[in-house]
Design brief:
By secondary structure, the protein is mainly α. The protein is built from 15 helices and no strands. Helix 2 runs antiparallel to helix 9, helix 6 runs parallel beside helix 13 and helix 13 packs antiparallel against helix 14.
Length: about 375
């Protein structure tokens, strides 16, 4: 009976430990869909700055009432510190990260910009060590595994993006190219991304800045979750701040009413998907995962998105699969599980050390209790004699 109970408790612990992993996998699949909708909206002629503004506006509309009803009984009073942290999180993880990414993509290419996003795990690892959210511990096996896994993930994503290689046919072609259909319907001219070397350097700096601010957001989000552990409320606040910031930024560059007008087309679908699912529901899941397992755990899943994008692009956008995609995906998965293994070993070692400390405290108490009676027994005869 005891063994069965122990096995049941162990199985429940494994299930609980897998929840953040499953959550991050779902997040990356949804974010991969955002990239597909981004590409379709661009082919439809939509201004990306307007799309980002609408994305966070819709997310705020969805999350505000949800946060009110779900957390109204347990939510504590908002402080100015929490509001300020939400403003900074919205600025770093929403407005700055997204707009810098788009500006860099316009000066270079979508492929180059998406490749640069794989610097996020490395930048997050450095920031997490600097802010003491993660221990480097380079001389330990778990520390070496985390460093090696992060480098493997970044290297695999770079290989997937920059190296094409031979054509690989994994399934029969679907002959579906939604992006080409939208571009042909709107007579969109073909774009030649930044051939100028100066533009490429500036685009690279902008994309690097986007990665830096996104990684900084992961760090700040962990701090915000600790100070105000109400995921719906903090996510709604962050989206509201990003909506205000992104709207002001978009209005500074594009005041054309046509760009802001919505109809039932791919633009509205992209806004609903990105706003409700990606910036609404998935940000809640992401914030919960960051609180449970730390910012490095969340950021190391980012290269997985490229694998999903590659598959969806092949099926829906008429793009071909190449050898570099397959090799890069293998490196990404290897790096992912290497980091997770290192973090698991590190957590197990910390739990074992904590158990030793507790055992030492109990042993100390036992020694003190057992050594008290002898002096009392020796003194009682003396007292009686007197």
């Amino acid at each position: 009976m005891g063994g069965g109970a122990g096995a049941g408790a162990g199985g429940w612990g494994v299930m609980e430990g897998m929840k953040p992993v499953a959550g991050m996998v779902v997040v990356q699949f949804v974010f991969a869909g955002v990239n597909i909708f981004y590409k379709l909206a661009v082919c439809d002629g939509m201004d990306m700055r307007v799309l980002i503004a609408y994305r966070y506006l819709f997310a705020s509309v969805v999350l505000a009432p949800l946060a009110y009803f779900v957390e109204r009984k347990k939510r504590t009073k908002l402080t100015w510190r929490v509001i300020f942290l939400s403003f900074i999180c919205g600025l770093c993880g929403g407005s700055l990260a997204q707009n810098l990414y788009i500006s860099g993509m316009k000066l270079t290419s979508a492929t180059f910009a998406s490749a640069m996003t794989n610097l996020i795990p490395a930048i997050t690892f450095v920031l997490a060590v600097l802010f003491r959210y993660e221990g480097l511990a380079i001389r330990t096996v778990p520390g070496q595994a985390k460093v090696a896994g992060t480098l493997l993930g970044v290297g695999g994503a770079m290989l997937l993006t920059f190296y094409k290689g031979a054509h690989v046919t994994l399934w029969p072609p679907t002959n579906v190219n939604l992006a080409a259909q939208l571009a042909a319907r709107h007579h969109a001219p073909p774009t030649v991304p930044g051939g100028d070397s100066g533009n490429r350097v500036m685009g690279s700096l902008l994309c690097t800045g986007s990665c830096f601010f996104y990684a900084l957001w992961l760090i700040l989000q962990a701090r915000l979750s600790r100070e105000y552990p109400f995921h719906y409320s903090t996510t709604a606040l962050m989206c509201l701040m990003s909506a205000l910031q992104s709207s002001a930024f978009a209005l500074c560059f594009d005041r054309d009413v046509v760009q802001w007008r919505l109809a039932f087309d791919i633009r509205l679908l992209a806004i609903l998907y990105a706003g409700v699912f990606a910036s609404g529901v998935m940000l809640v899941v992401l914030a919960w995962c960051v609180k449970r397992r730390g910012p490095l755990f969340a950021s190391v899943f980012n290269p997985m998105m490229l694998v999903v994008v590659a598959v969806l692009s092949t099926l829906l956008l008429g793009e071909e699969m190449h050898l570099g995609t397959v090799l890069g995906a293998m490196l990404i998965v290897t790096g992912l599980y290497t980091v997770l293994w290192g973090k698991r070993r590190e957590a197990a070692a910390a739990a074992a050390e904590h158990g030793k400390v507790n055992a030492g405290e109990v042993l100390h108490i036992d020694v003190v209790v057992h050594r008290h009676p002898p002096p009392q027994q020796e003194q009682s005869p003396a007292t009686t004699t007197r």
